[in-house]
Amino acid sequence: MSTPLVKLLDAPVALTWLDPVAAKIADAWRAALPRSVKDALHGVWLGHSLHAVLVLVPVGTWASAVVLDGIATAHQLAGGDEDVRRGVDDASGALVATGLVGAVPAAMAGLTDYADQHPEQKRVTLVHASANLAGIALFAASLVQRGRGRVGSARALALVAMAANSAGAALGSHLTYRWASQANHTQHVPHVTPSGWYPVARHDDLAEGSPVQVRVGETGVVLVRRGERVFALADVCSHLSGPLSGGEVVVEKGRDCIVCPWHQSTFALETGSVVHGPALSPQPVFDVRVVDGGVQVRLRELPGVASPPPVEGAVDDAA
Ligand code: FES
């Protein structure tokens, strides 16, 4: 059962009338940026969401500014030294300005993630962004008032701005934790894939460069033949669970890769590493061997992650 808080945070999901404008914004942003810039803004180079890192600047500086505003107000009410009060207010203004500058790259990274979301995620993101834009406008107004020496209204505006940004932050975290945006959609694979080797195909039946889906237990695995070699990755895309077996095999940066059909995340077949986003997490890799013309696969273990024991159909390690 949903709590009142969750119902409130989920409310934007029902705003389907946002879809046409949401799609237009996403298409325009996607078309405006070269792929290298999109990869950089997703955080492919970092292996982590860049938006999640960059938002720390505005969130941290604005929260600190509001705290300083409280200190300045208390100091003023207590009849404290005016120079000290002015110094605290100046520091608060500097923090607000720093947050406004930091909000620009954070918003760009967020918009880039948004462009490759599911429609229901886009609706939540639009409301999240609207709350944050309201907060940005209010902090900017607060800074203007500070410049005019109207510290009372500057502090009040900053407080309201912080409330707007807090609502935006709540929706942003809900988007990740409830709606799994930018989460790793293959995290479960080692926990549900039985350990051991499994025969899954005949080598001669695999056509060059044509992805094929097979199964190990309940786990979908995509097989790709390149010459005499066969590669195997988890079929479910780490970005948003698209089927890699429906994708295209390409050579990218000198590596054999597979492209997800949903949002074109590109993974190296040999290592599962992300070559192009929006995915940030690598694909789980299966070891492959060919025994008497039969292709066998085994999930490559991650350090410290235990898989379930072998199930029916497993073959001997030395087979
Ligand atoms: S599901 Fe989005 S790129 Fe694969």
UniProtKB/TrEMBL annotation:
List residues of the Rieske domain.
197-297
Q: What is this protein called?
A: Rieske domain-containing protein
The protein's required cofactor(s) are namely: [2Fe-2S] cluster
Give the family this protein belongs to, as stated in its UniProt record.
Belongs to the bacterial ring-hydroxylating dioxygenase ferredoxin component family.
What's a Gene Ontology MF term here? oxidoreductase activity, acting on paired donors, with incorporation or reduction of molecular oxygen
| Keywords of this entry | 2Fe-2S, Iron, Iron-sulfur, Metal-binding
Species of origin: uncultured Quadrisphaera sp
Q: What InterPro entries does the record point to?
A: DUF2231_TM (IPR019251), Rieske_2Fe-2S (IPR017941), Rieske_2Fe-2S_sf (IPR036922)
Claim: Transmembrane is one of the keywords in the record: no
According to the UniProt entry, the coiled-coil residues are none
Per the record, the domain of life is Bacteria
Q: Which PROSITE patterns match?
A: RIESKE
